[in-house]
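@channel sequence for tomorrow's demo:
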Amino acid sequence: MSSLPLPPGEGRGEGPRPETSSAAEELPQSRPSPQSSPGGRGGKDTLRFYPARYAKTFQSWHENLRDWCISRQLWWGHRIPVWTVDIDKLNGADCECLTDLRNQYQQYIAYRYELPIEYWCLRDDEPDLIDRMRDLGFQQDPDVLDTWFSSGLWPMSTLGWPEQTPELQKWNPGVVLTTAREIITLWVSRMVMFNLYFLNRLPFNDVYIHAMIQDGDGRKMSKSLGNGVDPLDIIHSHGTDAMRFTLASMATNTQDVRVPVEKDPTSGKNTSPRFDLGRNFCNKMWNAARFVMMQLEQAGPPPEFDETRLSMADRWIVSRFNRTVAECNDALANYRFDQYAKACYDYFWRDFCDWYLEASKPAMKNPERAGRTAQILAATLDGSLRLLHPLVPFVTEQIWQRLNAVRADRNLEARIDSKPSELLIRAAWPAQGDFSQAAEHIWPRIQEIVIAIRNVRNDYKVDPKKPVTVSIKAPAESARQIETHRAEIEILATCRVSQVGADVTAPADSTGASASGCEIYLEGLVDKAAEAQRNTKRCDELAKLIAQLQGRLSNEGYIAKAPQKLVDQTKQQLADAEGERAKLGCA
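structure tokens (generated this afternoon):
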């Protein structure tokens, strides 16, 4: 973000003076200051650009102003409001009439003494004035205003200007303009100049420059090249919300974003795999919401909320939600829609779905914990929908209606303020609550243990549904935390924790892993005969690969002719293969 302080315009209510040439000089009263202000959001007289680098484009143009040809010979546009008459053809009575018009309407602009021509500029289409001028022989300029001249009036003309309408007073200035970089000087600069000149204020304070979408090869999408993607086709194949979420996630501070274009074999339409991100996320939301609804229906009415009885997982997800609210607020304040989408994605998919929903399953089976856990499920889903609504409005609104029917009261007092609303679009944005430093320290340690167990299971290709027996050697404090969350560890890692303590020893034929200062032993995974056979086979594969890579690198022609990047890649492959061979202890 960068800021430019702009002085207020001068000469309120005065019109521009047309010259004898067809080029109008830029108005000195409306020139913004070329000096950038220090950091910070600045005040109401400060123009800010997001990303900040585009402030230089705006500033440079105003430091090097040139005359602007404002007339165009087109069939459409605003007719230039300039009327002329040959004074030599006027008699005395006509000249007196001109003087009367000048005094009555005060629309007179300039008189060119060196030419027998009288120039008039009309700011209002007053029928009586126009009729009288026509009677005197005035003729209106046949050309129209340049498109960007007319467009520069947009912040005012759409709100009733030049009349001082209530709409003009309320909505001018606006908050933010979003546009493309190629029309910063064509449009943004002209709107700023005109608004300053006529209304003595900026038309908006923030200018957000969005990235340009290109195809996978970096070319601008166009119909002639056939490399474009029709939004309606994406809506049909992926969904409106999926497209919206994907586009928001691509709204980075980069100048351009690439969207690989592929032909859909079924429809024959252009599509892109990048939109799979949004479709998969919407599906995840829908399935997670269905799970929560089932749990809420089974849990019955909520008990009286008692924060002291919340589990560590409950405290952690509430804290993560409030931290996500803070991240979203910061991202939106700086027009970082990609960071906003990423914060929502990471929280909902990884924290809420991958961890908390799974951790809630044993709690929902416990009559003493089910009610409190259901409260947390309802409140965090409520808050998630509020956060996600600008990104995926249709899916979230549908889920909201169902959530209202299942559990209308979802408020968690000071933790998650969820005031009820019939429609999500009218619901309040979530307020940021407190963080729990303890929960955000302890629960991630439990996650590390679960991840370590999962990794070992994956390495040994254990059936995902088959529980394994686990022993954990841990210091006293860690052992106490593990015992407290034994049920969550067992369901998240699909295991059975047999023993936990500082004096635990590795069982025979167990496989070990380390995490969070603990030693974790998984029993019954090692088949020595099968393991030896697998190692022998892998050693043979590595020997052949190493010989092949060494032969390639010993070839002088390959070294001389192959791209250096490919040679470096071959060397890295050789180093990796030799490292794996040493780790396996191959002969």
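heads up for whoever presents: The chain has five domains: 2-73+147-209, 82-140, 277-435, 438-526, 529-584.
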